[in-house]
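Chain A, query sequence.
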Amino acid sequence: MLSVNAAHNIVGIIGNVISFGLFLSPVPTFWRIIKKKDVEEFQPIPYLATVLNCLFWVLYGLPIVKKDNILVFTINLFGFIVEMIYVGIYLLYSEKKKRNRVLLILGGESVFFVVMVLIAMLAFKFKNRALFVGIICDVFNIIMYGSPLAVWRKVIMTKSVEYMPFFLSLAGFANGCIWTTYALIKFDLFILISNGLGAILGGIQLILYACYYPSTPKKNKGKDAGKPSEVQLAGQNAV
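Chain A, predicted structure.
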């Protein structure tokens, strides 16, 4: 029979694999931007938000905040690097006004993160540090889970799932479920809150898909690329 530690690690590795795939899911979109040398109507805000979100989960995964969280640390470090590459591609092919706005946001995020790290390290002892950082992580995750709501509204209004790809929706739901399980094996309230909500929203998204797939025009079914500004899925946070 598996020990608690072994089960915890196995589930965490599965979660890493799914999250790895989710982080790489926008690659076709950015490859299109590179080929066209144009960002078109692409909206960088969700990716900028994910950069900061990953940074805080990286901090949460460090031994100076919480011990035995290496799997949380590794996948979010990977996510941070990937998201920064996406943002870098946007900066390379966007016009000056858009580029300056993104750089301003990145600068603001950097200052905010450094300030929060200093507060966590200097104002809190180790036993309370995870509480402070965990609350910040959950607040950001909950805010980010609001991004699919616009897509849900579009699905309901158009009665079409064109901009809600099935496999990404399924992966987002699975991601939330796996990390919820991870949080329950060795109880972690902050990972549980974040991913429990993600699993619920991911489940709702799959229900919407089932309801509106039959009414989606045939030419749009399975159109998984979508517009980069449209595809924001529930449960797509790494942790």
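The longest helix spans residues 96-123. Confidence is low (pLDDT under 50) at residues 228-235.
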